[in-house]
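Researcher: Last one for today. Full complex below.
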Amino acid sequence: MDFSQTYFELFGLPQAYVLDRARLDAAYRELQTTVHPDRFAAQPGAEQRVAMQWATQVNEAYQTLKHPVNRGVYLLRLQGIDALAADNTKMSPAFLVQQMEWRESIEDARADKSVTALDALSGDLRAAHRRIEAQLAELIDTAHDFAAASEAVRQLRFMDKLIAEVGDVYEELES
Amino acid sequence: MSYSDKVLDHYENPRNVGSFGKEDEDVGTGMVGAPACGDVMKLQIKVGKDGLIEDAKFKTYGCGSAIASSSLVTEWVKGKTLDQAMEIKNTAIAEELALPPVKIHCSILAEDAIKAAVADYKQKHSQE
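Model: Here's the assembly. Have a good evening.
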């Protein structure tokens, strides 16, 4: 095995945003069994450590590729772009206005203890998430427009945060 | 995560929360977002006829450090000229609030928000 391989190479997958999840899962399970530290229990310490590093690498690769935001960030990193750089705070103004409105809606639903409002909001957020994911796939895989893809990844990150917050309010209302 | 006393103070008693009319002639609005954490910040300045920032408001959805950074900046910009407001550095915000390294991006967000608000105000007045 080769540590300089990309995560895609590691799993024998094409380097693309659109992902064959079943293939990823199958390749992950296969690699996991070959690099599992238990298989190296009888080996000398140095080899055990290498096996451990491999197991960690395989896990990290899997977690990165299966997650829509992390996969986008990783693909852009392979292009030399840090999509989530902390000093990049400029987002499309329309997107930020929409973010503010969604945050306010979450606050309102929480204040009103309205599960119906949360359900509607949750549906909107998931639809927006899917739409941005589709754009991201098109920007990376087809248009190769990495600057625009970088904004789309950031947008997706904001959507994740919103969806997580809706989840928190659901929990709060149910408890 | 332990917050400094100053962060807690601004977090528990945020100064200048609210909004001005986005379309008002004497108002500049800056909206920014931190992709690392998904925080969003809106910062507005109201500029007097003498060219000084007479009031500022903010609305931030984010962690305690992001709220404290924006609250602090709205206090700092009052009475300043636009050029002076542009000189506010995130390092000064981080230092004042004793932000830990992982929260430096919150101070960057606040610096960028004030810059965006000044830019918006200038933009409104450049077409006159």
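Chain A touches chain B at residues 83-91, 93, 95-97, 99-100, 103, 153-154, 157-158, 160-162 (CB under 8 Å). Chain A is about 75% helix and 0% strand.
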